[in-house]
Amino acid sequence: MLGFGLSIEPQLWALVFVMVRIGATFIAAPVFGNVSVPVTVRVTLSGAIGFLVLAAHPIQPPAQIFATATVLAVAAEALVGLALGFVLQIAFAAPVIAAEIIGGSMGLGFASSVDPQNGQSSPALGQFFSIMLTLLFLSMDGHLVLVEMLVKSYDVMPPGAAWLGVDRLRGIAFFGGYAFLAGLLLALPVGFLLLCLNIVVGMISRAAPALNLFSVGLPASLAVGVVALAVGFPAMGDYMVVIIREGLEATQSLVLG
């Protein structure tokens, strides 16, 4: 008997309680939290992983449903799940920042469309980088690593003692600067060439004021940017792998300790 005479199977209540942390992670995490992933799929995955957690850990849910302790326990579980997904989402924001830098220098800043991954408008180049990062994340079994961290999180922070400390919350906030650093480093090869091109175009415009700068500079920036992307993308892909590893390691260290 739980709460006000509500007869609920204890195993079902334990499964629902476990699914709170898992579902919150899937809401905030990349790939799982995309708009293209139906809610039914997320709930089904949460339930399947919840069965694994119950089989590996003896979870004791709160005794009553309508109680202050239960509300606080559910909020703590949701906080841990959101932190697990949010830290990884910060790392996935780096390609979008890099696309803003490169696209602005190439003259593609106006080329934007609705991203089917998150349902928001983003640069076309940013969508390309995000898709590549997602494919690399799946090829590295990052989704399986995230599920493994979810299951192990019940060893580090069992239900009832899952509140994140101030140090961990501050570390998660400071990790937001990594997205800007990684985005800048990711855009550095192409951005440096475009910067050199802009310097050359500026010198030409000073030497020949009658020359139409827009008729020369914009096509040259676009052509040099496309060639630089084609040449430098293998190195950019290697750094995307580093971004994924850093994101997974930060998720484990900042949230799980």
TrEMBL record:
This is Flagellar biosynthetic protein FliR. Pfam families: Bac_export_1. Keywords: Bacterial flagellum, Cell membrane, Cell projection, Cilium, Flagellum, Membrane, Transmembrane, Transmembrane helix. The chain crosses the membrane at residues 12-32, 39-59, 65-84, 91-111, 131-151, 172-201, 213-235. It is a multi-pass membrane protein. It comes from Sphingomonas aerolata. GO terms for biological process: bacterial-type flagellum assembly; protein targeting. One of its GO terms (cellular component) is bacterial-type flagellum basal body. Its main location: membrane. It is found in: Cell membrane; Bacterial flagellum basal body. Belongs to the FliR/MopE/SpaR family. InterPro entries: FliR, T3SS_IM_R. It comes from the Bacteria. Role in flagellar biosynthesis.
